[in-house]
Amino acid sequence: MNYIKQAYEIRTQKLFKNYSAITSVIALIIAILALVGWEFDIQILKRPIPELISMNPLTAVGIVLSAVSLLLLNQSPENRTLYFAARIIAACVFTIGMLRLMDSSFGFEFQIDRLFYKHKLAEDLVDSKSNRMPPDAAANLVFTGICLMLLKARNNKIIYVSNFLIIITAIISLFSMIGYTYGVHSYSGGPLFLSMPIHTAFCFLLLSLSILFAESNEGLIGVVTGPYRGSQVIELLLPTAVVVPIFLGLLRVYGERSGVYSSPVGTALFATANIIIFVLLILKTAASLNKSDNILLQEIEERKKIEKELKENNVFFDTIFQNVPNMIFVKEANDFRFIQINKDGEALLGISKEQIIGKNVYDFLPRNQADQINSVDRMLFQNGTPVDIHEEIITTPRGDRWLHTKKIPVKDENGKPLYLVGIAEDITERKLQSDKIQKFYKELEEKVQQRTEELYKSEQLFKALLENNVDAICLTNKEGELIYQSPAVERMTGYSLEDRKKNLVLDFLHPEDRKKGRKIFKDLLQKPEISAPILLRFRHKQSHFIWVEGSVTNLLSDKNVHAVVYNFRDITEKKLAEEALAISEEKYRLLFTNNPLPAWVFDIETLHFLEVNDAAILQYGYTSEEFLGMTLKDIRPPEDVSALLNERKILHQNTEIISHGDWRHQKKNGEIIVVDITSRSFEIKGRQARLVLAHDITNKILIEQELSKANETLSLRAMELTSSNRDLEQFAYVASHDLQEPLRMVSSFLQLLEKKYNGLLDETGKQYIHFAVDGAERMKKLILDLLVYSRAGTSKEISTAINMNEIALEVISTFTFALQETGGKIVAHNLPTIIAVRTQMQQLLQNLVSNALKYRRDLPPSIEISCLEDDTHWVFRVTDNGLGIDSRFFEKIFIIFQRLHNKTQYSGTGIGLAICKKIAERHGGSIYLESEPGVGSTFIFSIKKNK
Fold first, then answer.
1. Which pLDDT score, from 0 to 100, does residue 241 have?
2. Are both 64 and 178 inside the same structural domain?
3. How far is residue 573 from each of residues 473, 474, 536, 550, 569, measured CA to CA in Å?
4. Is 314 in the same domain as 350?
5. Most buried one in 87, 390, 537, 775, CB count within 10 A?
6. For the chain, what percentages of helix, strand and coil (3-state, to nearest 5) are there?
7. Residue 580 within a domain
8. Could you give the CA distance from residue 217 to residue 228 in angstroms, rounded to a whole number?
9. Are 885 and 869 in contact (CB under 8 A)?
């Protein structure tokens, strides 16, 4: 019955929760539609019946907030944030209603109901009255807000208060609807419940039902939704009692107004219809109750039948209970007194049933045993699960007995403890026997453990040897399939055991070694317990091959091993070293024998020749056999032998490479040569030897002697040139001043002569004076250019770091007037900082730019200065768009006084480019030309970098 009740409650709660959501959404939609009507002036949405008043906008907002709060409370009770938000919204609903009630009841002028659409409300008149929130609607908002704030409470009193308030709300709404239905409504001071708009009343009625449905199993609504017969009667009668009178009243009013019948007839019909409907409803309710009673009587008969069967079963189970060959007992749950025990229990405890029933264990067991048993019994009911006690001891008149006990808690349907049922088996004999066996096994286990520890230590030692052994170990079956490998194998080859299990050992050998490996394995299988050496190449996991050396042993006949055992180690480095040594020895042999310098090896102790190369045989004139029978003393002049013997003492103490300087050697023909010796000690066959390389420097010494004489001559010549250069510099200085003075006098007096006799001279005389002055000026410029040229290669100015961008700007500023006059331009492209003489770099650039401006075409001149660098030089380029130069004259233009144009076409002395060449060469560079006539020229000069 409890399960039926719970299922009914769950189904009812779910159903009413859905009702609550549906009615809330309907009220929400109606209120939103009313607000839409106010926003867009849609009259049918504001007032369904044109002659009635519209729903106040603030009332619509209150209904929307109420519906939203209820939906949040129903859908997310476990979400504390939404739950709190729903309570806040409910408080807002309460505040709206309370402020309006205070406004209408106590004369406050809050006018909160005109918060929205104030002007539209003033124009919305019915019977010359503007739209306001009616007091009964405000009261409904107050009650609804309170109920929403109290919803989901756990206190029954609070729930009943909430139910009472929401029923008042439903009654107010219902009265308003009935008033509208029967035409008993008034907007000019009738009852409060009649002044509410009909769709507002309908929304409040829906909200009231939603709140009641939200708590379907609590409070007043719980009376309706319960699984009892009274609830069933209410479910049948309540809807009919509400709906039928309203429906019949509507029919009555409609008939009277339509003239179908008179008011007395309508009243009679209304009473008759009510009597008939309620009589039918009472009959249906009585039939339902009779059916329930019939089911109840059948259940009583069934229960009597079951009780009879239970009594019969009790006799049957009591018989079994008393004759089970183990102690069975039952205790009450409060103080654990025995209420039943079987015959085996009496026999086991050694006392009668009468002495046991109504007693607890303290009455016949020692206190310590009784405390232990009671402790287990209490824990049994605390945990609520059966307990299996494998061993417990009790003291009886027959002595101590060992029991294996199982205890089971018995509770009623509400979980309240009723009884404790226990089943105990006497295991004393088994316990004694088990103790003996345990003692035996304990002794055996100690011996086994001791032996196991010894074996474990031995195994760990063997394992440590295997895992840390440099040598690798593999075991295969007779087919060559791998069955074990030591950790060293994976370290050596890169393959794990799983990597190699699908292949034979021979599959990993070098293709050239597989035939050899197969033969070793085949021969070994025919000779049990025989070992064979192996030296093979094995493929590493990274695809290269390693050399392995070891042995393979046939232990297939050994039952403990039954495998072919491979022991091997990686000798790749050793093998490579041997190969490298062989190659090195061969290279040494080739280098020694074919060395173009004479070489030999001699014994440091005896000075005997041990080896000699072909160059030494050719140089000294002795045969190889003659050399090997000689000592170092035999190729030294007699007077140098004592120095050789002194040197031998030094050779014993020094094994590094030693350059012994120059030594005299004597050939077979008696010729004395000077050689430069380089030697190094090394060990050969346990004796100290020395390798010697002899370089004949006889001719070199003779040449050095001749060079020394030549250097002395050159030094004298340099001193003479220095003195001559000094005289030339002095001459150039004197010439530059002394030659210019007469020219200045000639030029000045000719100009004075022209000025004084200007009126007396004819054109021819003036022309002669002009030619003389011009010649003097050109002579002066020629002298100055010669002085610059002479100083260009001998300047004593110090080279410093100069920014070529600054030099270029200075040069450009020098030709500002010429550029303005010709419309030309000069562009410098990010020039570097170099180490050079500043004035000479300025003169070099100035000469090149001056030539570019002088030898221009009819179009405006364009000049670009740029620079690149290579490993040793800065390479500058000065490019113009001038006349250009034929390639035949590329070398001529850098020679002093060489000109390509006569002086009447272009002024100049023919020294400028010669000065540029001299400046470039002084700075470790050069200058050359790239040009094409009619296109332009590019002068390229380089300046050496100073690192």
1. 61
2. yes
3. 20, 22, 14, 15, 11
4. no
5. 537
6. 60, 20, 25
7. no
8. 13
9. no
Let me know if residue 583 belongs to a domain.
no
Question: What burial letters (b/e) apply to 120-136, b meaning 16+ CB within 10 Å?
Answer: bbeebeeeeeebbbbbb
CA-based R_g, the chain, Å: 66
Residue matched to tokens 């088994």: 430
Report the pLDDT value the prediction gives residue 10, as an integer from 0 to 100.
47
Does residue 904 sit within a domain? yes
Taking the C-alpha atoms of residue 422 and residue 410, their distance in angstroms, rounded to an integer, is 11
Domain check: are 815 and 728 in the same one?
no
Share of the chain above pLDDT 90, in %: 3
Residues 481, 459: one domain?
A: no
Residue 288 to residue 718: CA distance in whole angstroms? 149
d(CA 165, CA 143): 6
CB 889, CB 882: distance < 8 Å: no
The pair of structure tokens assigned to 662 is: 């120059």
Of the pLDDT bands very low, low, confident and very high (cuts 50, 70, 90), residue 559 is: confident
Question: Average pLDDT for residues 155-163, to the nearest whole number?
Answer: 77
Question: Which one-letter amino acid corresponds to residue 826?
Answer: I
Domain that holds residue 682: 595-696
Domain boundary among 505, 540, 574: 574
Neighbours of 926 (CB within 10 A): 15
pLDDT surpasses 50 at 284? yes
Residue-by-residue DSSP string for 128-146: TEE----HHHHHHHHHHHH
Average pLDDT over residues 40-52: 78
In this structure, the strands spanning 687-696 and 800-803 are unpaired
Q: What pairing do the DSSP bridges indicate for beta strands 417-426 and 545-555?
A: unpaired
How many Å apart are CA 782 and CA 911, to the nearest integer? 8
Q: What is the DSSP letter of 192?
A: G
Residues 81, 46 share a domain: yes
- What is the band of 555 on the pLDDT scale with cuts at 50, 70, 90? confident
First to last CA, the chain: 110
Same domain, 12 and 134: yes
Is residue 283 in some structural domain?
A: yes
Nearest alpha-carbon partner for 127 in 184, 51, 44, 46:
51
What's the pLDDT tens digit per position in 615-661? Answer: 888 888 898 888 888 988 888 888 887 777 777 666 655 555 565 66
Q: Report DSSP state, residue 882.
A: S
Residues 452, 511, single domain; the answer is: no
pLDDT band at 567 (very low <50, low <70, confident <90, very high): confident
Q: Tell me, yes or no, whether 270 and 298 share the same domain.
A: yes
How many structural domains comprise the chain? 8
**Pairing status of strand 825-828 against strand 862-869:** parallel
Domain end marker among 288, 322, 356:
322
